Amino acid sequence: MELCGSSVDMLLDGSGLAPVFREAAHFDSVVELPPGSRHTDLHPFVLRNQPVVLRGALLDWLPVERWGEDEYLRSAGAGRRVGVRCAEEGTSTFGDVRRRGVYNVAEVEWCEFLDSLDAAEQPLSTPQYYAAQLRLKSVLPTLYRDTHPPPSLLAALGVPWRSAPSAYIGCSSRTPIHFDLLENLFCMVRGRKRIQIWHPAHGKTLCPGGGGELLFSNINLTTMDEAMHPDFVRASQLAHVVELEAGDALYLPCGWWHAISSTQGSKCISISYWTQPPDMKGSSIVSPHNLQL
């Protein structure tokens, strides 16, 4: 496990996140900012690499206003095909496409995909597909146009990474514990999602290396045997839990581990804007504890 921890540190070094931002830290809860908060309110948290929820920050954003209507979604993507992940047999868990040997992917018609979500909304049903990391600009251009202008909060993070934004669309889906090497402005467009978040300092407790990838944990929150992984209980106690609904945003910093589950029996859509960590986060002489909010 020590070797895995060292390798994770190498990944974070490469991302531009200095070791000082991975030191053990204690947070009672993830900070929540009220409706009307601006990018200037978010910016200090970005400098500290500290997650923050912005309640109701996106209520007047076009995707939040439009994408709750099934008929609009169908017409906006009619005739298009999308790449989807297929659920692991008998579950609603979807591995990441980077995890070797534990996932299946397919390409389906947009309306067929939405039909599968309709079916998953029925009682006792399990989802068949989950559309993750959909690059709206190339895959669903009509929906991409709805995202412009992007949320003003994005100014606190910097220039979006490549073909931003990416959409995540599913029903009753779960994504396993992992971390990302980029900053993320996580925008909740439809439905509700529950996100468990762990500080980078707790990575070793989360047993990196799931599916052969250091970005993933070996801990499965739905099937974990506590006898096999004694750290599981401790990991659960260390998690900060965030509940997001349509119109909310979450700043999820580089290196923070997280697991995501959407509301059972209802469609959920979120959009992520990825950015490179600010240059100052690569400096080992900067202390996040000395950056005043």
UniProtKB/TrEMBL annotation:
<dbReference type="InterPro" id="IPR041667">
    <property type="entry name" value="Cupin_8"/>
</dbReference>
<feature type="domain" description="JmjC">
    <location>
        <begin position="137"/>
        <end position="290"/>
    </location>
</feature>
<dbReference type="InterPro" id="IPR014710">
    <property type="entry name" value="RmlC-like_jellyroll"/>
</dbReference>
<protein>
    <recommendedName>
        <fullName>JmjC domain-containing protein</fullName>
    </recommendedName>
</protein>
<dbReference type="Pfam" id="PF13621">
    <property type="entry name" value="Cupin_8"/>
</dbReference>
<dbReference type="InterPro" id="IPR003347">
    <property type="entry name" value="JmjC_dom"/>
</dbReference>
